[in-house]
Amino acid sequence: MVKAIRVHHTGGPEVLTYEDISIAAPGPGEVHIRNEAIGLNFLDVYFRTGLYPAPKGLPFVPGNEGAGVVLSVAADVQDFKPGDRVAYADPMGSYAEERLIPAVRLVKLPDAIAFEQAASMMLKGMTAQYLLRQTFPVKQGHTILFHAAAGGVGLIAGQWAKHLGATVIGTAGSDEKVKLALEHGYDHVINYRTENFVERVRELTGGKGVDVVYDSVGKDTFEGSLDCLRPLGMLVCFGQSSGPVPPFDLGVLARKGSLFLSRPTLVTYVAAREALVKASSELFDLVAKGIIRIEVGQSFPLKDAAEAHQQLESRKTTGTTVLIP
Fold this sequence. Notes:
There is one protein chain. This protein has helices at about 40-50, 115-135, 150-165, 175-180, 195-205, 220-225, 250-255, 265-270, 275-290, 305-315, and strands at about 1-5, 15-20, 30-40, 65-75, 85-90, 100, 105-110, 145, 165-170, 190, 210-215, 230-235, 260, 295-300, 320-325. By secondary structure, the protein is an alpha/beta fold. Helix 4 (about 175-180) links the parallel strand 9 and strand 10 (about 190). It is an enzyme of class 1 (oxidoreductase).
């Protein structure tokens, strides 16, 4: 038996229970790993509350992101062996001391990257990769707006976008978070609690607007994000921490300048193993070279996952958060 967090019914942080679970021997194509660190993401909140249904129903072990060591492998697994350092961003089930995972969803972790770094950047870092390199490929001369600039994805994206040659504007909810984002690649960071971010973006861009807005906030920022775009600009909605975006008239996109709207997910972008390896390799390379700094903002014992969720939802966290089994 090993310890894990399980959700027996959806709801608030209190539904996260710390209990014993059993781990079977690896089946075909599976790897048995010991988690050394586990990433915390807003995606976990969506599944805990029931906003997103758990893929295999209730009860479930939440969490998609982690890093650890291979304990054993199925006879048909060739790419991994006991002792290998590994990391992953799916499937669900990371809030546990140990777990089984399909070998095709694992990547080998370079020695230069610590387990805590890997667990806090796999989902977030590969999210930044597909956003900046695929959904809207950022290039020299682009101007971008990234909401939640001091969050886990935001801090990685700021550094990466600056490396790509963009002018990087962010939003954050406190002076402390503004300062943190400015230290991670952002040229300008708007405190949305004291400034109107739409007016400030228009001012910073000379009235032209930005080429792309990356928005994980959802309901509270959606309309304003559209108003920050230049004609033919793109709004990339990749999360909804403030709630789902209500239905709206698609004609709004035409009236505001023939805008583009996308709702991508990491799962789609890394569904093929080749794409997973490519995205993670690009991320690892930039981290190893020091172009992207991964700093863990908070860590909690796995048993205190409920407290970690409370901190995340109240927007008291900065950067990345990890759970330690």
